[in-house]
Design a protein that fits this description.
six-stranded mixed β-sheet, alpha+beta
Length: 1032
Amino acid sequence: KLPAQGIDHNVCFRPIHMEAPIPDPAVLVREASNSLRQEISAESGAEGRHAPGPPALLRGFSGADLNNKVGLCDLILRALSSHTGWSSITDAGALQVKDVSGASGNKTYKVTPPAEVQASPPAVALHERPSDHDEGLMRRMSAACNALAGAGVAPERLAEGGDWFIEAWDALGELPKDGALWGELLARVHQVPIDWFEEFRAELDPKNYGEVGGTTPPGSHAWIFFARGILRDHPGCLKEPDLFAEWADPGPIGPVHPAAKRVVTLHGDFHPGNTVYLGPDRGMQCVDFEFTCVGGAIWDLSFAYACCGGRLDRAKTFLTSYLTALGQDPNSWMELALDACLGMMFLWHSGGKLSAWEIKGQEPEKVRNLIKSCKEFAAAVRADTTLQQLLANRGFSACLSDFGPFSVVTILQEAEVYRKLQQKLEDRTAKEQFNADLKEFPGIDDATIADAVAAGARLVTIKLLRDPSKALQLRAGTDRLELGDAVATGESTAAKQQFLWQGQELQHVASGLFMDAEVRYCHHTLGRPWETCSGELSARPRDGSDRQRWFLAAPEEQGLSCEDAAGRLIRHCVDGRAMEVNAWQLLAGQGVNISVPHTSMVGMLWLVEDLIPRVERLRRLDFEGEPDVGLSWASAAQLANEAGARLPTVAEVIEAGVCTGDFDQWLPVDDRGEELWIQTGNDGRLYRTEVPEFANGWGSDKEPHPWRPTTASSTQGSKLHHFLVADGKLKQFAIANVTTDDEHRPALAAHVPPGSEFLIRPAVFCEQRPPVKVDFEKLKACGGVDVCWLVENSKGDRFLQHNAADGTYLTYPLGSGNPCDEGRWYMKDGVYSEKTGFPVSGTLHGDATSFFMDVDCGPHGPHKYKFDGKAYTRGFLANDPDFDLCLAVRSDGYTKDPFEVYLAKMDDSDGQRWRVVGADRIQHVATGRFLHSRTMYAFLADVGAPWDANHTNLVTRPGNDSDAQRWLLDPVPCSTEGWKMLRHFRDGRVVDVHNWQFSDGGNVGCENAAHSYALGCSFSLCARETALGGVH
């Protein structure tokens, strides 16, 4: 199976001087949990508070179509017939229904009575679980909700059925940003009596399943996974008793702090998305109890710690509040933080390595070694205060990636792509294949260098940050780059290690050639992105193309806490890949090429040293005016323009080495198509960038903030009374490395007729396909035909299995694009079988008009395979009106931006129509605004989750001719369907449907999410008339 879209982040204890909203990591943790729920579905207190009674049980509604509003409202009124106000409603159509479902595949509706009805409760939530409603799961969720509601930390469950339930809706809107409330809530959850779980503990005890025996410690993380059927359904290698025992015992990973060692009622999926705010008098409550059980408190603490986003202030507020509410010493929060950080090892997101779902399908010996390595890491951290400090400063994943078998450098040494790149370098040297024309290309003379430096260029050497005795050079007799032993300035061979940096071009002094690489956007191989993102770097004659444009980037700009502050990435301007030493082997003779920046960047950080004092390209502009006025971005841009200049780019600020002191200070910059600010105070976040519009909004106001320049006569706010400007216009890039059918119609415009209007639709739903016919006689006799089976197991879970004529098959959960099984199939005289890890056999029944199979799937029990003649694409019904979806614009979405782009049901309105303007801009027909997202070059903190922390909002903005509004369609590699990704031109990130879950109201963003078959980031520009043909 493809991994769930989890996240990884750095847990960094560093001073923070600015307030900000709940972190993006919390949102991503929620999305990781939602993705996991989809996978599972595919595979399978307040003293004196009155305890709620048992919910009403209504029969006859399980399996009902709750997408039908009439049926949904009828269920609500019948279920609430004894509740005040609800019983007086006779017209079901008068109820207001809002779909507030997440991305897990289950449905949630908020139902409100008419305004004139005084009902109790004033609103309810109806939850439907169409494909994930195992009887034991539903009973446990009900018991958990009842226990937590009795303590006032969960809404009261009012009614329930086999696959649905109704809860009171008391939430009052957005969650407060006070982490103390969150800590208090978890403390109250952990004080709920644990006796409610005893009947379920007996049912879930591993002694009841497979070969696993013995007793699981009551505080083990294993109970979370038992609660979701890990051993009952698909135990994999964990069915081996010895291996299971090693995994279930955390050893040194386990907690030391008394509060974390307690056996308590666990929520199990504790993140902000599963909490609601009831107001200052009632505080907060939890919702969503799929994982709720009894186990070690460390689980919830680790889950919540991951949501703190690496912020010391947030972690401290949360943990001290938790400890205070328990009556324990709040000053011990750092010890508790260490436990919580190590406890992330068992999570299915945030860099966890030992989640049951991730390891169960692996070879037992591999898992045994993995468990051993994880425990050795934890033991080493607990025994060494220096490692503990590194864990605090660099974070869980970064520290783990430097440890033994987890070392990225060790993994890179085994990568085939680097072996091939290095071999090409050696072959070119051995065979003397250097182009004769390039040999004759003249170098740069001293007079030319002097003139260039006087005009603002830099004469530099480029050395490795981690080993300055090694420098970048052109290998003799070739056009390829390598590491060499650094040569002192003045030596006869010094020119081979010297480069002239002019604007965005990097020219080799000795040869006169320019650094050159193919413009190629990243399509990530999860876990090993270098295999598909690496490419060749060479030196070529100047051609003025985007192949030869480069810029310096600071690690801190990615928001990292990096001790390598002097290091710089040398990034490709278009695609964002960076120069790196092959396999990060920092040795003379090792080739230098390009790849996506990731993890510790050991082989990607460079020292760029000037050989001649450089001419300053930036100048100060004083901020004059009335006292105590803060500098807004718009004012800065206007003042720069009036002075005949412009705001500098991020790269120009970094290249100039700007530093305004050791305090928190931000200056305005302008090269990302947004009102962008860069941190120039060296307080731990030097050169980090931020868009205040989506934080506190301080970038556009005139308040005298202490972190932003103020007018010269100010007595309040910052003592900095100037900002920086640059002269000259910014370079606009041309589209490179794309094929067009007409020199006057660049790539994007070539996909639609000039001036036409279109819908932007997920590619998976755009193909109109006729009903399918199958040669039944051939199928029965010997197979060898394409046939798609609708498969249902004994629990009611449904799948689509595509059996190909070549004997292979792929299986998808119904309504999903993520394959969950693959293998080979056989048919002989109506007897069916599959080649897999256990016997699968069945018999074909029926005739050409109607046929099916009864198939015994071994440990998974009997399955029914039906052929219904309908066309399917992956796990979706072709031409399905439920998926007539397209991009539209709303004002009340998850970003709170008034012009947020999202996924909507097609309705033939102007608000869903777009057109191409010029070469590569997309204009919203209804408003005239343009599809827009801030440029952000990707950095992979977690190589298995390239989308992590690489998000920008997808919105519309007035046209501004910036690269933030340029797009292109890029083919998905090896796509048999011919799908194309909608790419952001400069950074190469993609328009992406979150979690690759398609529904009306679905969230969309610009993400670094191009991987595998690109289901959620492939789009088609469908002519309006053609698209509307699919509306039913």
